[in-house]
Every structure is written in C-alpha cells, then in structure tokens.
Design brief:
With 63 residues, the chain is mostly helical. The protein has one domain. 70% of the residues lie in helices and 0% in strands. The protein is built from three helices and no strands. Helix 2 crosses helix 3. The model has no long low-confidence stretch (mean pLDDT 73).
Length: 63
C-alpha cells in the first residue's frame, strides 16, 4: 500500500471519529491529503461558517 494512500485513509478515519459529526463529515468529504491541511484550513473555515450561521438573527416573518 503506497504511503500517500495510507496517510489519506488515516486522515479520513480520524475525522470520521470526531465528536462533532458535522465537522467530521464535511472535512472527510473534502478529502484532505494531510492532517495539517485538514486542521488548518477546512475545519477552521467550516467552524467559522457554522458559528456565523448560528449567530445570525432569524427573520421573524419566515418562521
């Protein structure tokens, strides 16, 4: 088994086991090539978007 493939599979398995299943699903679907790539870019971006959406006020007319 090539090292690159094994590393990608290890990264994918790690993120499938996260407590926050939405973050894990999002990051694993992006197919990160290393832990550094996944943690520094994709998780931070996804977490930022999630917190921004949660903080946005809801439109009372939309329900």
């Amino acid at each position: 088994m090539p090292y690159t493939y094994a590393a990608e599979q290890a990264v994918a398995k790690f993120f499938q086991g996260l407590l926050d299943k939405e973050v894990g699903k999002h990051v694993s679907l992006q197919i990160p090539t290393s832990m550094v790539d996944a943690m520094h870019y994709r998780m931070k971006i996804y977490s930022h978007v999630q917190s921004a959406c949660a903080a946005a006020p809801m439109d009372p007319q939309r329900g």
